[in-house]
Amino acid sequence: MKHVHPSRLLKAALAADAVVSAAVALLQIVAAGALAEWLALPRGLLFETGLFLVGYTLLLVMLARSARVPAWLVGFIVVGNVGWAIGCVALPAAGWVTPNAAGMAYLALQAVAVLAFAVLEFAGLRVSAPAGHAGTAAAR
User: Fold this and answer.
1) pLDDT tens sequence across 38-70
2) Per-residue pLDDT tens digits for 95-105
3) Distance of CA 121 to CAs 9, 28, 40, 42, 129, Å?
4) Shortest CA distance to 128 belongs to which of 39, 63, 79, 84?
5) Domain ranges of the chain
6) What residues pair up with 69 in beta bridges, in sequence order?
7) pLDDT at residue number 132
């Protein structure tokens, strides 16, 4: 498994993603009912994605604080962010949710934010130094 020493850019992008994800998680968990009414989005969708974001935030914090991270995992996070953005657009486009104007703005803001994080995390990964394989130095 290929690991990298995360660049400053990657660490900053992961940390910023963690801060924003934690804030959205807190908002969607604590105020799911009020948000559902205000945005015309399903309460369950808001609450459950908020719960998902708690775990996601913990993963991001762990990676942002690590001296060595699996490159595949950062790539998975980048792809996941792109997928989240697609979901924000696809849900109303497919008619699975029918948000009002505020709900559409909320989804659009999330889509733009996660795409920005995906770009920053990908760029940070590209400039990160390879870490080599664990255990190879001991074998030589």
Assistant:
1) 999 999 999 999 999 999 999 999 999 999 999
2) 999 999 999 99
3) 8, 24, 31, 30, 14
4) 63
5) 3-131
6) 4
7) 74
